[in-house]
Amino acid sequence: MAELVFREMDVRDIPEAVRLERQLFSCPWSEQAFLESLNQDTLFVTAQKDSVIVGYCGMYCYAGGEGEITNVAVAPRCQNQGIGRKMMEYLLAQARTRGIIRIILEARVSNANAIHLYEETGFRSCGIRKNLYELPREDGIIMVLE
């Protein structure tokens, strides 16, 4: 089995991230959205096997030690192999080195796999946002890690 390598995302990774977005999400981020996000106070990491990006996740870093996870994606062929959990653990460890102590995220209420992943990495549910998502319209669960 190929070794899994994690590192911070850079602009050269954007086309692969967009490809994964289009495979996985009904409202994918554009190259421009990634580029603008990488130019802010963010932390985006990639997971690679054999130098190929198989996943990525990202977080905005705010003042006061707060963060907000924006994206978590694992290639369909690589799901259910623990990559998402390991990638999240790497992201959270990197966030701690930046002084992030409270992190929030949202997920579709129907996305049981994502919710399970977030619970495995220490997040707990703290509310619901009605009609948060489009295509299809759906509520979002709000989760927090403190």
Number of helices: 4
How many strand units? 7
What is the third-level CATH name, the topology of the domain at 4-103? Aminopeptidase
Shape: globular
Distance between the termini: 34 Å
The largest beta-sheet arranges its strands as 1-2-3-4-5-7-6
**What would you give as the CATH superfamily of the domain at 4-103?**
Gcn5-related N-acetyltransferase (GNAT)
Tell me, what is the CATH class of the domain at 4-103? Alpha Beta
The helicity comes to: 25-40%
Protein name: Ribosomal-protein-alanine N-acetyltransferase
Describe the structure.
The chain has a domain at 4-103: Gcn5-related N-acetyltransferase (GNAT) (Aminopeptidase). 29% of the residues lie in helices and 40% in strands. The protein contains four helices and seven strands. The chain has helices at 14-24, 31-38, 83-97, 112-120; strands at residues 4-8, 42-49, 52-62, 66-74, 102-108, 124-133, 138-145. The protein has a seven-stranded mixed sheet, sandwiched between helices. A hairpin with a 3-residue loop joins strand 3 (52-62) and strand 4. The longest helix has 15 residues, at 83-97.
Highlighted features:
Aminopeptidase; seven-stranded mixed β-sheet; 29% helix; globular; Ribosomal-protein-alanine N-acetyltransferase
Summarize the structure.
This protein has 146 residues and is α+β, with helices and mostly antiparallel strands. It has a domain at 4-103: 3-Layer(aba) Sandwich (Aminopeptidase), CATH 3.40.630. 29% of the residues lie in helices and 40% in strands.
Q: Secondary-structure blueprint of this entry?
A:
Layout: E1 4-8, H1 14-24, H2 31-38, E2 42-49, E3 52-62, E4 66-74, H3 83-97, E5 102-108, H4 112-120, E6 124-133, E7 138-145
Parallel strand pairs: 4-5
Antiparallel strand pairs: 1-2, 2-3, 3-4, 5-7, 6-7
